[in-house]
């Protein structure tokens, strides 16, 4: 060790380093806890009477036809439960508070984007007959001009992470 540093200086820097690491851990825990909380309440509105019956019908179509197919899109259009669901769940780009004057979800934050991509992946794992890469391509096409380039950067990061 350098002779210009005494034990008191070493103890002070160790205390600072320990405090810094503790603060970092608390900050990361806040992010983790927030994501965990979102996971616990994710899609609970689908259990409500106004959504459940509509999603039961959509699910029966989704078992027969792949995500993104004409039949799948038609079933989504003809059910009011989808609009109701979007209006109650901020992880959907269609959630009203996210929309700018042109109807694009430019106000959608990073936590919602992470949950959205995790939702895409979970839907693919649960209901999907469409390969994950194709499902991602469908969503890229669906939202291609809706998100900002910064939002797309995060979307792509999360897609890579969960793939």
Count of discrete structural domains: 3
Structural class: mainly alpha
| Helix share, percent | 55-70%
Name the poorly predicted regions. none
Q: What is the makeup of the main sheet?
A: none
DSSP strand tally: 0
Percentage beta strand: under 5%
**How many DSSP helices?**
7
What distance separates the N and C termini?
46 Å
Q: Provide the gyration radius in Å.
A: 22 Å
Give, in order, the helices and strands.
HHHHHHH
Mean pLDDT: 94
What would you call the shape?
A: elongated
Structure description:
This protein has 163 residues and is mainly α. It folds into three domains: 1-41; 42-89, no CATH class; 90-163, no CATH class. Helix content is 68%, strand content 0%. It has seven helices and no strands. It has helices at residues 7-41, 49-64, 70-77, 80-88, 110-126, 132-143, 149-162. The longest helix is centred in the first third of the chain and has 35 residues, at 7-41. The radius of gyration is 22 Å and the shape is elongated.
């Amino acid at each position: 060790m350098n002779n210009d540093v005494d034990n008191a200086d070493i103890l002070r820097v160790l205390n600072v380093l320990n405090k810094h690491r503790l603060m970092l851990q608390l900050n990361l825990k806040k992010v983790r806890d927030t994501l965990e909380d979102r996971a616990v309440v994710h899609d609970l509105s689908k259990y409500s009477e106004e959504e459940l019956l509509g999603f039961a019908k959509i699910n029966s179509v989704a078992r027969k036809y792949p995500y993104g197919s004409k039949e799948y899109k038609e079933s989504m259009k003809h059910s009011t439960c989808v609009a109701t669901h979007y209006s109650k769940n901020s992880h959907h780009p269609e959630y009203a508070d996210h929309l700018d004057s042109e109807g694009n979800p430019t106000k959608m934050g990073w936590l919602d984007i992470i949950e959205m991509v995790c939702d895409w992946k979970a839907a693919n794992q649960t209901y999907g007959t469409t390969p994950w890469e194709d499902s991602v391509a469908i969503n890229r096409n669906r939202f291609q001009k809706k998100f900002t380039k910064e939002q797309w950067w995060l979307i792509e990061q999360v897609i890579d992470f969960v793939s």
